[in-house]
Amino acid sequence: MRAIRPRPGGGAHTLLLLRHGQSAANSEDSFSGWLDVPLSDRGRREAARAGELMAEQALIPDVVHTSVLTRAIHTADIALATIGHPWLPTRRSWRLNERHYGALQGRSRTAVRAEFGDESYALWRRSYEHAPPPLPEDDPSSARHDRRYAGVPVRELPMTEALADVYRRVVPYWQDAIAADLHAGRVVLVVAHGNSLRALCMHLDGLTPREVETLNIPTGVPLHYELDHGYQPHVRGGTYLDPASAAAGIAEVLAQGTRRAPERDSA
């Protein structure tokens, strides 16, 4: 991991963080993780609105970083097209992927909560150190069977993750790629996921594990950070470009898993 030294002189570093627009899994209140789910119609509208917000506030990125999951890629594409900059250089990395939810992936949050109880559900979903049960080794949805991860050592491909694991894979990418672009004077847009962005905010804001457990990131609302020469935020937690939409989105995240569980088939 390459250390990034502060730039002498010059202005602040500008960083924009954007969680992908609402996905089909968000709409259905299910765990998606590394499953490649599409954006919903609302998610596509959110992505376009994110581009409008950046343009309205003259925060036009010079370079973009996304995960390798389609919902983040499409969000970035729609936002950049809205800005009129679809040609911006973009780098993609699995290190920005959503947290791997193991055997919970594809399952309804409400059903998981009903089956395992509130305590296990809360630990798996919000705690810093606790990972859900792992995906079986032979599961066809494993990243080990996906071409996009062909260049990643098998030992680095998770079968489940805690937020702490996400933090450990995101921070090296911050150092080697994102901070390097900031160091070069570029305005950087990162389009990723709820948990990979929570991990990045934890690093930027110096959050404790207890503090990051209560941090929620809404879909589709850009979060603006101005960083000083030492890459410390001028405003801890950054500033959402649409605070009202962000507050409503955070309320939705907090309510996840509270829908009525579907009836089990008794057969």
Write the layout of secondary structure elements.
Blueprint: E1 13-19, H1 24-28, H2 41-56, E2 63-66, H3 70-83, E3 90-92, H4 109-116, H5 118-126, H6 163-183, E4 188-192, H7 194-205, H8 209-213, E5 223-227, E6 239-240, H9 243-255
Parallel strand pairs: 1-4, 2-3, 2-4
Antiparallel strand pairs: 1-5, 5-6
Helix pairs in contact: 2-3, 4-5, 6-7
State the separation between the terminal residues, measured CA to CA: 54 Å
Q: What average pLDDT do the residues reach? A: 93
Our count of helices gives 9
> What structural class is derived from the secondary structure elements?
alpha/beta
Overall spatial form: globular
How much is the radius of gyration in Å? 18 Å
**Main β-sheet, in a few words?**
6 strands, mixed
Q: Strand fraction band?
A: 5-15%
Q: Would you list the SSEs in sequence order as H and E?
A: EHHEHEHHHEHHEEH
Instruction: Return residue spans where pLDDT drops below 50 for at least 5 consecutive residues.
Output: 1-10, 260-267
What is the helix content?
A: 25-40%
Strand order of the largest sheet: 3-2-4-1-5-6
Total beta strand runs: 6
